[in-house]
């Protein structure tokens, strides 16, 4: 083991400390999600909006007005997107005049399929549905209530995120100076570099995600157009937006045009054709597009990215799944510059399958030649 990675404590003490810190972090994530979720998003938003804010400040805006102008500009852009998609969705439903009839047709086709393959009659299936009518109604009610609650949480978290974003941008210099107070003066250059690198990780990740959305949205739209699905652009880019949830977003995105085609078209091949189309696009996105565009920007291996996705989903739901990879990349960046935790950075990196720990530390040694890293006293 190298000098940089050697610890002064026994392994058992290290293990106990790591377990204590990990357990505390999990407890804090679970109990503090009402504050931590919007605060985490606000940190991401602050980093992404900082270049725009600085641009306003360069043209003689005060910091407060620069932040207000940035938030107004971004909210106008988002409102435009919502208006565009809302108009498209409204037009979609207004043109589906035979929606009820098509839904009934699909319902009876499913009944016939079940009757033929399960050796039971339609009357028996309908009787079973009637007997479980109250349960079905309760399930629908619970789903509607859950949707309303989720919408309420989204509005609450969104409002808190805007407030936190404003305050973080306003006090950003003070926050950076406060962090530097914890370190000796000769170490502050390297701390500044680490903070800048974390900002670069966040910006590069979401720039990569945006590019992936554009590519996947284009592929979706072309594929749906070839299948003759109406509103191919709408469905294509709604599905692409869901790619912000890694690994599973494209699958959820394909469900919308699939259900639309199943209900709205007599020809079942249109709906069935969406399945292989989605599988091809999903494989391209997961194995080529995202690793090439996003993977190189965050350098986190797929195993721990997927574990982070699951952990984030368990504790913070969809918000946790969106934040999982950038937070994992930030943890990797921080642990890389602390000798005692470099082994964890190595475990998280995409170099883990191909490089030895010694080769991985070569870049760290090169950095250390010109900077004083975070070292224990």
Structure description:
This protein has a domain at 1-31 and 299-377. The protein is mainly α and 377 residues long. It has helices at 11-31, 33-58, 63-95, 99-118, 122-131, 133-170, 172-180, 188-226, 232-241, 249-264, 268-298, 302-336, 342-348, 357-370. The chain contains 14 helices and no strands.
Strand content: under 5%
- The poorly predicted ranges are 1-5
Overall pLDDT confidence: 78
State the total count of DSSP E strands: 0
What's the Cα radius of gyration?
26 Å
Helix content: over 70%
Distance between the termini: 20 Å
Number of helices: 14
Biggest pleated-sheet summary: none
The H/E string reads HHHHHHHHHHHHHH
User: SS-based structural class?
Assistant: mainly alpha
- Please state the overall shape, judged from the principal axes of the Cα atoms: globular
């Amino acid at each position: 083991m190298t000098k940089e990675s050697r610890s002064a404590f026994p392994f058992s003490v290290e293990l106990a400390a790591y377990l204590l810190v990990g357990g505390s972090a999990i407890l804090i994530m679970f109990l503090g999600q009402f504050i931590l979720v919007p605060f985490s998003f606000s940190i991401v938003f602050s980093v992404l909006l900082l270049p725009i804010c600085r641009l306003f400040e360069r043209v003689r805006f005060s910091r407060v007005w620069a932040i207000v102008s940035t938030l107004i500009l971004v909210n106008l852009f988002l409102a435009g997107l919502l208006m565009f998609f809302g108009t498209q969705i409204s037009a979609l439903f207004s043109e589906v005049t035979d929606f009820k009839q098509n839904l009934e047709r699909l319902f009876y086709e499913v009944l016939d399929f079940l009757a033929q393959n399960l050796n039971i009659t339609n009357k028996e299936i309908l009787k079973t549905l009637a007997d479980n009518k109250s349960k079905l109604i309760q399930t629908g009610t619970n789903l509607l209530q859950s949707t309303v609650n989720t919408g309420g949480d989204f509005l609450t978290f969104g409002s808190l995120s805007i407030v936190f974003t404003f305050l973080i941008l306003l006090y950003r210099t003070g926050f950076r100076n406060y962090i530097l107070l914890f370190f000796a003066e000769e170490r502050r250059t390297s701390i500044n570099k680490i903070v800048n690198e974390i900002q670069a990780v966040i910006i590069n990740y979401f720039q990569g995600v945006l590019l992936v959305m554009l590519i996947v949205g284009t592929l979706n739209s072309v594929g749906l157009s070839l299948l003759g699905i109406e509103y191919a652009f709408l469905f294509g880019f709604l599905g692409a937006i869901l790619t912000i949830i890694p690994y599973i977003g494209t699958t959820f995105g394909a469900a919308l045009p699939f259900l639309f085609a199943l209900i709205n078209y007599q020809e079942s091949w249109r709906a069935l054709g969406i399945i292989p189309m989605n599988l091809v696009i999903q494989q391209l996105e997961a194995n080529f597009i995202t690793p090439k565009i996003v993977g190189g920007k965050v350098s986190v291996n797929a195993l721990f990215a997927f574990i982070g996705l699951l952990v984030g989903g368990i504790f913070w739901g969809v918000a946790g799944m969106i934040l999982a990879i950038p937070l994992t990349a930030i943890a990797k960046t921080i642990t890389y510059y602390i000798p005692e935790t470099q082994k964890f950075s190595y475990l998280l990196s995409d170099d883990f399958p191909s490089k030895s720990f010694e080769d991985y530390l070569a870049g760290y040694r090169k950095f250390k030649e010109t900077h004083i890293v975070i070292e224990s006293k």
